[in-house]
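Hi support team,

I submitted a single chain yesterday and got back a structure, but I'm not sure I'm reading the token output correctly. Could someone confirm the output below corresponds to the sequence I sent? I've pasted both exactly as they appear in my results page.

Thanks,
R.
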Amino acid sequence: MSKHSSGKGSGSKSGAGQRMSPAAASRVQSAGAKNPGSRTAESGFASRAQSAAAKGDGGRQQGGR
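Hi R., thanks for writing in. Yes, this is the structure output for that exact sequence:
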């Protein structure tokens, strides 16, 4: 049996290595606001996502490196 899995519970970070876009940061912030008791809201990830989106060029499409 292979160690690699594509399921959500695999523990892999699907967004690893990708830049945070302003739209993605907005979705994170919205999810935290809808559920204030969630790990996303309590961890402060929404503010870190907004900061990352503001710093980077996440709106640019990922093409060749």
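A quick pointer for reading it: The two ends are 33 Å apart (CA to CA). Let us know if anything else looks off.

Best,
Support desk
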